[in-house]
Amino acid sequence: MRTRVWALLLLFAVGTGCHQAVMELDPQFSAKADQYAVSGRQGLMLKEKVSFGPYSSGEVDREWDSIGQWQLFGYHSATQDGGFRFQLEGGGGTPWRVECHNRATLREMSLDLLLGENWSWVVESNNRFSCGFTRSGESSERGWLMALAESGNGTPLGGMIGRSDGLRSWKIEGIDRLQGAAIATAAANGFTITGDHGALAAVEIINEGRVWIAKTVQGEDRDLLAAAALAMLLYREPERMVME
């Protein structure tokens, strides 16, 4: 999946005179939002730290990805798990602690035919990404959970972020289109976070990354959106798993 995304980004750059590809975003929202450039995403994962505006992830504690595979006749199954954790720096209140987990699943069938030919097809392929947001001194009911998943019909990661007690929630939509492009990239270029009265934030995860937060969002909600944006920027789509 990642290979196809970068191939499409390269094709777009060539077709537009090498202009950098950017995520498609509602201009009415971006005009009323604070926009931040992102730093730290292109470095090594050792002592990884991502920041934008007044916010930073601090040093990220990232787990090594693990892959489990099994095979029975022509049926192959593989699962890749990974995760990371960090604490938000730069917010105005008690800092959010964030712990994330991602899982990719691939199931394939293959059939050996005459003359040495082999046919294979994907039975299931999906990614799931979830994060918990907590603050010291507060009950677990005031924590937040972000859950993103692919729907299985070719749409990018999407889902929601909501408080553990169910009293508040925001929708998260994956954006798979580039500004000025006629085709989708088949994976998320970024995300928008939307509340009851419209967009609250947007995150571009291609290139160096960019973040938009609505000017009307302040205080605790702004810090939480910043923590969610950092989690999205730190997310790494799993590489294509090779069946042995």
The secondary-structure class comes to mainly beta
> Helical segment tally?
3
How are helices and strands ordered from N to C?
A: HHEEEEEEEEEEEEEEH
Described by strand count, sense and barrel closure, the largest sheet is:
14 strands, antiparallel
Unreliable stretches: 1-17
What shape does the CA trace take?
globular
- What is the CA-CA span between the terminal residues? 19 Å
- Helicity level: 10-25%
What is the alpha-carbon Rg in Å?
19 Å
DSSP strand count: 14
Mean pLDDT: 82
Strand content: 35-45%
What key phrases describe this protein's structure?
244 residues; 14-stranded antiparallel β-sheet; 14 strands
Give a structural overview.
This protein is mainly β and 244 residues long. The chain has helices at 2-15, 27-30, 219-234; strands at 33-39, 51-52, 55-56, 61-62, 66-72, 75-87, 97-112, 118-134, 144-149, 158-163, 169-175, 190-195, 198-204, 210-214. The chain has a domain at 2-62 and 129-234. Helix content is 14%, strand content 42%. Strands 1, 2, 3, 4, 5, 6, 7, 8, 9, 10, 11, 12, 13 and 14 form a 14-stranded antiparallel β-sheet that branches. The longest helix has 16 residues, at 219-234. The protein is globular.
